[in-house]
Amino acid sequence: MSEVVVECTGLTRTYDQDSVPVYALRGVDVSIMKGDFVSLSGPSGSGKSTLLNIIGGLDRPDGGEVVVSGTRLSTLSDSALAELRLHKIGFVFQAFNLIPVLSAHENVEFILQLQGVGSALRRARSTAVLDSLGLSQMSHRRPGELSGGQQQRVAIARAIVTNPALLLADEPTANIDSATTEELLSLLQKLNREQGMTIVTATHDPMVMSYTTRKIKLHDGMIEEDESAVVV
Amino acid sequence: MNIKLLYQLSVRNIFRHKRRNIMLFAAIAVAVAGVSSMNTLIRGFQADMLDSAVSNLTGHLKVYAPGYRDDPSIERSFRLEDGFQPDIPADKLLGWAPRIRVPAVIMSERETRGVQLVGVNPEAESISFLADVPIDGEGLSATQDDRILVGAELARQLETKVGRRLVIITQGADGLNRERGFRIAGIYDAQGTGLEKIYVFTGLARLQQMLDSDAITEISVRLKEEPQKASVKQLLIETFANMEVMDWQELEPQVAAMYLFADGAIYIWFILMMSALTFGLVNTLVATVMERVKELGMLRALGMRNRMVISQVVLESTIIMSVGVVVGLLGGYLIYLSMSDGIDLSSFSAGVEMVGMSTHLQPVLLVDDFVLVASMSLGLGFLASVYPAWRAVKIKPLDAMRH
Ligand SMILES: Nc1ncnc2c1ncn2[C@@H]1O[C@H](COP(=O)(O)OP(=O)(O)OP(=O)(O)O)[C@@H](O)[C@H]1O
Ligand SMILES: [Mg+2]
Fold first, then answer.
1. Taking residues A81-93, what's their average pLDDT?
2. In chain A, what residues touch B9 (CB-CB under 8 Å)?
3. How far is B307 from chain A (nearest CA, A)?
4. Is B291 in CB contact (< 8 Å) with chain A?
């Protein structure tokens, strides 16, 4: 009934560490539907980041296939992958990864500039997004002048300003305190509920899992558990 | 591609490391100022060299009878019609002079020397060094003047002075020797150049009379601008169909070689000054890229294309170079202005005179040289960014997340 945003089949990924093979993913099959709010959890080294990176087109699997919004990623060149990331996927990283020499507003506008959006529309959209995340007061500040939670909100603003089909977050709350974490989570929840944004986030944090509607547990590169909560 | 965005990012990144980049700007500016002001001196040196070459007796162009250069005698001569004027446009011709130049022996009571005896029309010699050389005694007054003008060094060797008589022996048009006494009208001081020992001047008509000839052995032509010589040479070749027409580069091959060498010196000097700097620039740019591995990786992860990553590094390099170059050229110009009265080289005069230069070096600013320095510097800035840009492109998006 719902539209499939990400379709993974038989994903494997093996790293060579000092010529010892490390099996990061050992056959992952998963479909993520439009409007899903997914947490990927599991012990350290279970393959959460690897899976996110492969879904986001930052890394390529050794076996299996990923389809994002109908596009088979294995058919894309590196630059076509970059293009896909630019237009279809929003990223939020653990370290906030804003451009230090640009203000919050400019950081958000930056990605629209990369997309080639005209300046008036760019300004309107980034202002609107920053407002909706409660950042309008500090939009002219540079990342160094913002708290960790504020920086991460700017990073989320940057990730969603392009209206991506998919928002990927790798431990977005790992570096911020629990009060701010709750603030961010309700923000993500709002995006998910009101705009139907599809969100996949890797996390260790039980608080994050309490917000997500679908909880996938990885263990040793395989899906151990995949449970959907009943959406109220 | 969004230039404004790249520009903004580059400028901000440069400001991020103010101190490091100010040092780099300063180094570039000093080098550019050094190179461009040095160029004005080299050009001044060239102009001086050219000026002394064409004003000794060479002129920009000369016409000889065939064979004269191998056997300079009155037999290899030619005649001009009465009232002859060369057919050279007035905007090119500074002046021309007919002369006889023959080998002769000159004798005082004590010494004998071999010289070149030159018959001149003093009015026409405004084109040669005779016009402004300091003279002890009097210069020649007319083509009929039967006195002679000798160089200071020759006078010293002959142990003679103004007003004394000297005997000159030379071969007449009939192949027989003529011997005649001449009174010294004046002694010219050509600042120790070789000219002083070689050239003895007298009136042209007077010398023709002595040689029993109405011919001349050369015409010397002085132009307003050096580059005009090619077209005028062609003109003279047409006018003097059976004569040899030669330009100063053919007549003074050593000076011509020095002149060319000075052209090359401008490039050598530039490369010496700027190559060290280029390494500094490459270093700084690589450091800038390496400091930003995470940031650049993140930009790649978000979908920034290779082209933009490269453009950003190139732009940053170009901005740094441009600022340095502009400040440097300004500095070079100021140095040039401060030298605009010329530089006195008389403390090195012995060495300077040996290469045939005057003791006063007047710098010459050619706009083309400034443009050349600017464009070569920008070219270097561009080259310097190739390797750092390549490093930046090699950064993998995942590097942004691993730390
Ligand atoms: N670039 C790499 N080179 C070698 N091994 C790697 C590389 N990236 C990941 N691995 C290995 O693959 C496995 C899965 O790593 P991954 O980062 O996906 O785990 P994770 O679940 O995200 O862990 P964490 O909770 O610590 O972030 C681990 O054993 C890790 O050491
Ligand atoms: Mg991880």
1. 92
2. 99, 101-102
3. 10
4. no
- On the question of pLDDT at A52 being above 70, the answer is yes
* Record: contact B305-A79, CB cut-off 8 A: yes
Residues of chain B contacting residue A82, judged by C-beta atoms under 8 Å apart? 300, 303-305
List own/partner pairs for B18-25 with CB under 8 A and 24 or more apart.
B20/B284, B20/B287, B21/B284, B21/B320, B24/B280, B24/B281, B24/B284, B24/B320, B24/B324, B25/B320, B25/B323, B25/B324, B25/B327
Numbered residues of chain A with Cβ closer than 8 Å to any chain B Cβ: 49, 53, 56, 58-59, 79, 82-87, 91, 93-95, 97, 99-102, 106, 110-111, 113-114, 116, 158, 170
pLDDT tens-place string over residues B165-216: 999 999 998 889 999 999 999 999 987 677 888 999 999 999 999 999 999 9
Tokens of A231: 């959406």
Return the SS3 of A52: helix
Average pLDDT over residues A5-33: 93
**What is the rounded distance in angstroms from the CA atom of residue A61 to the CA atom of residue A63?**
5
Query: Nearest C-alpha to atom 7 of ligand 1 is from which residue?
Result: A15
Q: How many Cβ atoms from other residues are within 10 Å of residue B73's Cβ? A: 18
According to the model, what pLDDT value does residue A232 have? Answer: 46
pLDDT at res. B272: 86
Q: Please tell me the predicted confidence (pLDDT) of residue B115.
A: 95
Chain B contact set for A174 (CB, 8 A): none
Which pair of tokens denotes residue B222? 């002085």
Number of other CB atoms surrounding residue A41 within 10 Å: 22
The answer, yes or no, to whether residue A228 has pLDDT greater than 70, is yes
Decide: A79 and A112 in contact? Cβ < 8 Å: no
- CB-based contact A86 B306, cutoff 8 Å: no
Nearest CA to ligand 1 atom 31: A45
Pairing of strands B218-223, B61-64: antiparallel
Name residues of chain B where pLDDT drops below 50.
none
DSSP secondary structure, B348-401, as one string: GHHHHHHTT--SEE-----HHHHHHHHHHHHHHHHHHTHHHHHHHHH--GGGGT
More confident residue, B169 or A93: B169
Ligand positioned closest to the Cα atom of A51: 1
Per residue in B263-275, pLDDT (tens digit) is 888 888 888 888 8
The answer, yes or no, to whether ipTM is higher than 0.90 is no
Q: Is A13 in the pocket of ligand 1 (CB under 6 A)?
A: no
Q: Quick count: other Cβ atoms within 10 Å of Cβ A173?
A: 26
User: Which atom in ligand 1 lies closest to the alpha carbon of residue A42?
Assistant: 21
pLDDT digits (tens, 9 = 90+) for A101-150: 899 999 999 999 889 898 899 999 999 999 988 899 999 999 999 998 89
Q: Any residues with CB less than 8 A from the CB of B186 and at least 6 apart, and which?
A: B135, B136, B137, B138, B139, B149, B162
**How far away is chain B from the Cα of A194, in angstroms, using its nearest Cα?**
25
